[in-house]
Amino acid sequence: MCDFCGNPACTLTKQQVVERGAILESNAYGIMRLATEENPQTYSFKGVPAFYSLSALIPDEDEENPHAYIRFVFDEDEAVGECWEEREVENPLSWQTEQEFIERFEKGGQE
Ligand SMILES: [Zn+2]
Questions:
Q1: Would you call 86 exposed, middle or buried from its count of C-beta atoms within 10 A (0-12, 13-18, 19+)?
Q2: How close is the Cα of 57 to the center of ligand 1, in Å?
Q3: Which among 13-17, 37-41, 45-49, 80-84 has the top mean pLDDT?
Q4: CA of 18 to the centre of ligand 1 (A)
Q5: CA–CA dist 46, 98 (Å, integer)
Q6: Distance (Å) from CA 10 to ligand 1 centroid
Q7: How many of the other CB atoms lie within 10 Å of CB of 34?
Q8: Could you tell me what percent of the chain has a pLDDT over 70?
Q9: Taking the domains of the chain in order of start, what are their residue ranges?
């Protein structure tokens, strides 16, 4: 039983999510902004108007909760970095990793 999400079947550990690293939604589509000193790389998403671009979801190492992730939000209208937002992911091990997405993207394998 997971103390964090309350799902009796959940065996997720912080170590698993930290080793797996940053993850991305399955509708991630393209690279929007390359990483800079201040900002991680951000992405666009299929079917989502690009008023904002978002970084991958990064395990929140300040939180004990293995479901806790943070991501950077870039305001494309104003062209400024907006904020970091927190987000809980129910089953992060079923998501693609940022690394997997980048590898497919570089091979031109996006449909
Ligand atoms: Zn859980």
A1: exposed
A2: 17
A3: 13-17
A4: 14
A5: 16
A6: 5
A7: 9
A8: 97
A9: 14-106
CA of 78 to the centre of ligand 1 (A): 37
Centre of ligand 1 from the C-alpha of residue 17, in Å = 11
Retrieve residue 31's tokens. Answer: 């690279």
Q: What angle do CA 62, 68, 54 make, to 5 degrees?
A: 100
Distance of CA 66 from the midpoint of ligand 1 (Å): 7
Residue 105: what are its φ and ψ, rounded to 5°?
-60, -45
Alpha-carbon distances of 96 from 46, 53, 81, rounded to whole Å: 15, 18, 25
Non-local CB neighbours of 68 within 8 Å, separated by 6+ positions? 4, 59, 60, 86, 88
Distance 92 CA to ligand 1 centre (A): 10
